[in-house]
């Protein structure tokens, strides 16, 4: 488990550097991301070469987390789990996840503005829970002398790795890192980070490893609720926020997935029974989307044919009548849902939520920097995990459902399947 005292310490950078380092040395590395996140896992996938799944005790539940870890442990030489926020933040926290499976913790500490105090921070992280602290990754160190002061202050805690200040870091946007495809020379950046990583090989080799008993089962019985169905999925820079587990869940339920790009002005595949519009950055591509006539024509025809549409967050934004960007410019959107999306610099909503459907609880999260001025009455609302207060609105218009809520499909296969089936079925 790679964690820290807070966000901004460099967890993703360090995780990516470690993953790329061991991958370069011929090791098979699997990486997980704690919490609800789309962009960091894309960058981590770029670093390790395999899909990065979420690992969260609330979002997935303990049995599903165990199954994913067991599968990864059987496949990989090294399994990394990037934590969320600070080690003890959230309920459940990254520390709870680590302790649930006996996973040792690597504490990433931004040492750019401290030296010996790194020791106090590390001991506090170890003892507060406590957790099994394997060691420290000293990030953004300035010199060998700086590193030596840190090592002397850590007493019995080893510095497993250190990383110098990077002249070129992974760029960020308001939701976190930018998409890997938008970064010129991203592999070169990752390679430089891996080359800059100073690893204590001897200390690394004696980290206690996680063990599973032989009688623990990997079997997950997924009902074939979508057998024979074809689901069209928008996938490009405007519709990029998709949990890999969501795609796997749809396939495991028997669906065939057909991808297309609205930004490239591609039509919805004609053979599709349902349409999935995931989240993303439509606000960054509003002009292109507003002029994508082939995409828009196919979308209206799809709705008029009475086919199923499920849109979440950015997907819903693309279906509104208009979008008002941060510069005050209004862009025409698809117009399938009445109302205007208004972008803002301040975070509008963040946190884990759940949708209590007639088929049970569907878990997920919300994270957006816009508001929706919509005259429609919501069909339903999600519930906030922490307070059980009313969360995001869910709108239903015929066979169309749209919401800011990002659903995690494996949390409820039946409720998920109903999102993509005609309401008369």
From TrEMBL:
All residue ranges annotated as the CobQ/CobB/MinD/ParA nucleotide binding domain in the record: 2-174
Pathway: Cofactor biosynthesis; adenosylcobalamin biosynthesis
Domain CobB/CobQ-like glutamine amidotransferase: 230-411
Record keyword Ligase present: yes
Cofactor: Mg(2+)
The keyword Ribosomal protein belongs to this UniProt entry's keyword annotation: no
Record's keyword terms, sorted: ATP-binding, Cobalamin biosynthesis, Glutamine amidotransferase, Ligase, Magnesium, Nucleotide-binding
Family: Belongs to the CobB/CobQ family. CobQ subfamily.
Name this protein carries in UniProt: Cobyrinate a,c-diamide synthase
Protein's organism: Undibacterium amnicola
